[in-house]
Amino acid sequence: MTRIGAILAAAHASVILGGCAIATDAPVLRGAGPSLLRNGDFETAPSPGRGCPPSWWCTMHADTDSFNFGLAADQGSAGRHLRVTRVKPEPWALVTQVIPGDGLVGKRVRMSVAVNAEGRDGAAGPVVILQGVGGRVLGQRRSMLPAGPGWRRASAEIDVVAGTEQVEFGLLVDGAGSVGFDDVEAMVVAPPSK
Predict the structure, then answer these.
(1) 47-63: buried (b, 16+ CB within 10 Å) or exposed (e) per residue?
(2) pTM for this model (two decimals)
(3) What's the rounded Cα separation, in Å, for the pair 181 and 70?
(4) Which of 45, 89, 106, 155 gives 20 to 30 Å between its CA and that of 163?
(5) 190 Cβ contact partners less than 8 Å away, ≥ 6 residues apart
(6) Which CATH number is 3-189 given?
(7) How far is CA 142 from CA 13, 57, 187, 192, in A?
(8) Per residue in 17-71, pLDDT tens?
(9) How wide is the angle at C-alpha 12 spanned by C-alphas 89 and 93, nearest 5°?
(10) How far is CA 138 from CA 34, 102, 118, 162, 164, in A?
């Protein structure tokens, strides 16, 4: 099984076990601090001949030509946005950034993103994956929005556990059609009061 396959298997198991963060149609308040991610607004000029945005890594299930990745300026949440379109029958695509986990252990991180899943079949949204030694998945949260009207925000948050070597922040596309992503943020947040 590939690393991404193992990650998605863990993600699907988490949904079955109730570990999935809740997607919401209501706006998610954007954070007041700086984002942990680079080029979360997709405004950095694209690299010639590369569909995946600068600072991001694009992958997909099996057939590497099954999804198109590109920057679009039409009807973005704010300026340019990432558009991911399935062009062959493969189940998923993932756009990620990975950051070191040191300094985040014991803290809660939240990833939020504007998603436009209008007129598509499937779901899309953020996924946060904690990786230990050798890429072992220590935990993950995701928040998938089904097809629906216009731009909506979704967020996923997780407590970073001991042994986390890196945190992978991803934009997951599951199913057919085209989806837009914009205004991606990842930041340390205070855990909810008990």
Answers:
(1) eeeeebbeebebbbbee
(2) 0.81
(3) 11
(4) 155
(5) 108
(6) 2.60.120.260
(7) 12, 18, 15, 18
(8) 233 333 333 333 344 457 899 999 999 888 887 889 999 999 999 888 899 999 9
(9) 35
(10) 25, 14, 33, 9, 7
